[in-house]
Amino acid sequence: GAVVSQHPSWVICKSGTSVKIECRSLDFQATTMFWYRQFPKQSLMLMATSNEGSKATYEQGVEKDKFLINHASLTLSTLTVTSAHPEDSSFYICSAEDRRFGETQYFGPGTRLLVL
Amino acid sequence: DAKTTQPTSMDCAEGRAANLPCNHSTISGNEYVYWYRQIHSQGPQYIIHGLKNNETNEMASLIITEDRKSSTLILPHATLRDTAVYYCIVRGFSGGYNKLIFGAGTRLAVHP
Q1: Which candidate from A34, A43, A104 shows the least CB-CB separation from B104?
Q2: Which of A6, A30, A106, B84 has its CA 20 to 30 Å from the CA of residue B16?
Q3: pLDDT in 10s for each residue of chain A, 116 residues
């Protein structure tokens, strides 16, 4: 089946620093990847759609300069949380679209970010 | 994007079938119904999807009504490991992409 990994699985950082999260499709190529955020006891919220070789498309209310997305290859997308603040602490999850299976999205295990 | 309505929570005895309903009355003709589940502190796991016909795989069965306004996910023999939040999503096409918009889902508790 389609496998998506994320790194790191958790990260603690100081306020004001930037954090990069990687999302990789391990056994398939993904032209399109997605980034979600999930706060405790809430559902997943789509942040942006990442397309290989082009700029990401952000959902309404998501600051593109705050959450930098780079989809440099067909197997890697990165999310950088710039100048992180405590309110950015959340569970960040990526997914990758596998066109072998009807464009079904497969999700990574998530990255838990804690900003102190 | 078509919205879905699911019960907030359900219980099921271990070994019995778990039937999770979902209403999607505003679904369009070319929109798929997807089911995912999320076990605590993990990324969502794909279960199954369908358009019109009933579908079955090694995890579950998906029954879609003829008018496509509702569907039911069936876990034939629930185990304790099936305890999770189950999301029914109508996959919409917006801005050139297939998007999944997650609702609150159904919290399924499987008990001994």
Answers
A1: A43
A2: A106
A3: 799 999 999 999 999 999 999 999 999 999 899 999 999 999 999 999 998 888 899 999 999 999 999 998 999 999 999 999 999 999 999 999 988 877 899 999 999 999 99
Instruction: Kindly list the residues from chain B whose CB atom is less than 8 angstroms away from the CB atom of residue A106.
Output: 46
Beta bridge partners, B35, equal B48, B88
Beta carbons of B44 and A93 less than 8 Å apart: yes
Residue A81: strand, helix, or coil: strand
Q: Is A44 close to B97, i.e. CB distance below 8 A? A: no
CB contact under 8 A, A93 and B43: yes
- Least confident interval from A79-83, B61-65, B101-105: B101-105
Q: What is the dihedral of CA B96, B98, B104, B107, to 10 degrees?
A: -170
Stretch 60-89 of chain A: residues touching chain B, C-beta under 8 Å: none
Query: Which residues lie across from B74 on neighbouring strands?
Result: B19, B61
